[in-house]
Amino acid sequence: MMLAAEPAQQPSPNTDAELEALIPQAAVNNPEAWANTTLSPNAPATVPQSALDASSPMVGDADFRLPWPDESLALPELVNLEPDPDVTEFLAGGEGTLTAEPVEGEVLRISKHAQLVVPRDKVSLPMRDALAVRFAALSTIERLSGDGVDNRAQLAARAREDGKLLHLLLRGYGYFDAEVVQTISDAEQAEVRFQVTPGARYAIASVDLGDLTQTGADYAALSGAFGIVSGDPVDNDTIVMGSARLETELGERGFALAQVGE
Predict the structure, then answer these.
(1) Which of 34, 116, 244, 248 is 20 to 30 A from 50 (CA-CA)?
(2) pLDDT value at position 219?
């Protein structure tokens, strides 16, 4: 079998009425000339865009109704809000600026948001590493900042809370006169530097073990279990652990009802 293609037949001028209504005969005879002429002499004239007026009323019966604004409507008076104290203090420059100048001390990197600067002399702050670990675990900056980028006002507020935290941790190690100064960088990824000046470390003036002397021959072993004497440096961790050892020793020596207070 052989198939041959043949040219399509030219549409006949005598088309039916329906087809002629869709495609006028003039379009068939001369498509280009028909395309350049007006489709219908009765078609409405196009209104130039520049002639439209936004304030002119709508013509015709639209399918929707939009009430005209009530010009007599009284809007409520706006109330002045109190300024955010954190932002106000930050704008006042109370948080300082972190410069590229060399720091006086050893820098302990807490995270990409914060760094701790302590004296290079490890004798003045021997628990620096433990302090850094505890600070990182409790830091407001670390808890709220995450991996995002904070603006300087947010960071300033969190740095203020972390400054208080550092003071509290240093007091627990006996540094009641410590100074903490926080500064914030001008970089796009702002960070906070906490400069710690520990000062003198306080020592325990006296130890009062209450009625422990009434334990008689067990007193030496019980007081030794507590392990803290006058002149030892203040350290809350050591006191807590000593109290736990004393309570255990009391139980093992038959003083089951003994109570160890603070």
Answers:
(1) 34
(2) 83
Question: How many Å apart are CA 60 and CA 64, to the nearest integer?
Answer: 11
Report how far residue 190's alpha carbon sits from residue 61's, in angstroms, rounded to the nearest whole number: 61
Give, for 183, the enclosing helix (H) or strand (E).
strand 179-185
Any idea of the CA torsion for 168, 170, 173, 176, to the nearest 10 degrees?
A: -90
- Whole-number Å distance between alpha carbons of 238 and 252: 21
Q: Tokens standing for 176?
A: 């009641």
- What is the number of other CB atoms lying within 10 angstroms of the CB of residue 123? 7
- pTM of model > 0.85: no
Residue 172 buriedness (CB in 10 A; 0-12 / 13-18 / 19+): middle
Give 131's DSSP letter.
H
C-alpha distances in Å from residue 156, one per residue of 53, 143, 144, 181, 241: 53, 14, 13, 12, 36
Tokens of 227: 């392990």
Dihedral of the alpha carbons of 131, 134, 138, 142, in degrees to the nearest 10:
80
Alpha-helix residue ranges (DSSP H) falling in 16-103: 17-22, 25-29, 31-35, 85-91
**Are 223 and 201 contacting, i.e. CB atoms less than 8 angstroms apart?**
no
Fill in the amino acid letter for 23: I
Tokens of 51: 């002639």
Q: Are the C-beta atoms of residues 223 and 208 closer than 8 Å to each other?
A: no
With tokens 């007599």, the residue in question is 72
* H or E segment and range at residue 181: strand 179-185
Q: What is the pLDDT of residues 8-27, one digit of tens each?
A: 455 555 556 666 666 767 77
